[in-house]
């Protein structure tokens, strides 16, 4: 039983990291160059002015949870087993 729980937690973490790259561009924050902000020497002019990383992490956690529940539901409906979770 513990193997099943650990496997599904690891699966959620993988989904979280994958969905992070989908959520990061959401919000359309202009880059420092596009916003006309003075770019400090050593900074990338393509870096966003306001990153809002906490909001994006919260949104990503919600999106990842929805995807994870869908995958879990589909695995139950279609009787799919993850490796290491055999019956």
Strand element count = 0
Give me the oligomer status.
single chain
Helix share bin = 55-70%
Q: Mean pLDDT, nearest integer?
A: 88
Main β-sheet, in a few words?
A: none
Alpha-carbon distance between the two ends: 9 Å
Beta-strand content estimate: under 5%
Overall spatial form: elongated
Secondary-structure element order, as H and E?
HHH
From the helix content, strand content and strand pairing, which structural class follows?
mainly alpha
Low-confidence stretches: none
Q: How large, in whole angstroms, is the Cα Rg?
A: 19 Å
Helical segment count: 3
Tell me what the structure shows.
- There is one protein chain.
- This protein is mostly helical and 87 residues long.
- It is built from three helices and no strands.
- The longest helix has 25 residues.
- It starts with a helix and ends in a 10-residue tail after the last helix.
In short:
This protein has helices spanning 2-23, 32-35, 53-77.
How is the secondary structure organized here?
Elements (H helix, E strand, L loop, with lengths): L1 H22 L8 H4 L17 H25 L10
Helix pairs in contact: 1-3
Which characteristics define this entry?
mainly alpha, 59% helix, 0% strand, 87 residues
